[in-house]
Amino acid sequence: MIKINRKMEYALMCLKHMGTKAQDELTTARELCDLYQMPFDTVSKVMQQMNNVGICHSLKGVKGGYALTKPLSEITYMELSEVIEGKSFEMKCETNSGGPCELIKSCNIISPVQKINYHVAGLFKQLTLEELLMKVI
After folding, report:
1. How many CA atoms lie within 13 A of 75 on its CB side?
2. What is the per-residue pLDDT for 137?
3. Is the pLDDT of residue 87 over 80?
4. What's the CA gap between 131 and 73, in Å, rounded?
5. Per-residue model confidence as pLDDT tens digits over 62-77
6. In a 3-state reduction of DSSP, which class is residue 65?
7. How far apart are CA 68 and CA 50, in angstroms?
8. How many helices (H) and strands (E) does the chain have?
9. How far is CA 119 from CA 1, 17, 39, 50, 115, in A?
């Protein structure tokens, strides 16, 4: 099972909501928080992160808010994940401190784990947010 962090969940919830609106229709962080009972500070930071990389754009002021800059069909799960989580899905055999794993010389599952990583990363690079959020299975 893939585990996603809370910020990623909030980003997905925001984008799903925004995906139901016209592309130029604005959504405020407060609106999202009120609708889905999410914390305002975290949602604001998530929206700013997405704004900074061009997933959405913001309009400041009393009638301001956020709007998608492109359809969800043009944003992949991998792209969003790398923005929100700040890391790639590349598998690295290293410790939390960044040094090499102490089992690297005797590990017998490097190849299978790399294979899993290859397939999962491939899926996430192809999976659009429209497919994930808007299409019913």
Report:
1. 24
2. 65
3. no
4. 7
5. 889 999 999 999 999 9
6. strand
7. 9
8. 6, 2
9. 14, 29, 34, 26, 6
